[in-house]
Amino acid sequence: MTALVTRKDLCEVRIRTGQTEVAVFVDYESRK
Q1: How many Cα atoms are found within 13 Å in the side-chain-facing hemisphere of 24?
Q2: With helix as H, strand as E and coil as C, how does the chain read?
Q3: What is the pLDDT of residues 7-23, one digit of tens each?
């Protein structure tokens, strides 16, 4: 169970990080 929870948490963090990275990238280009 712990492994599953950790795996799910990692997946969620990864998706969130990717979304944030994309948002930052778009903002950076827009500012340029």
Answers
A1: 6
A2: CHHHHHHHHHHHHHHHHHHHHHHHHHHHHHHC
A3: 676 666 666 777 776 76
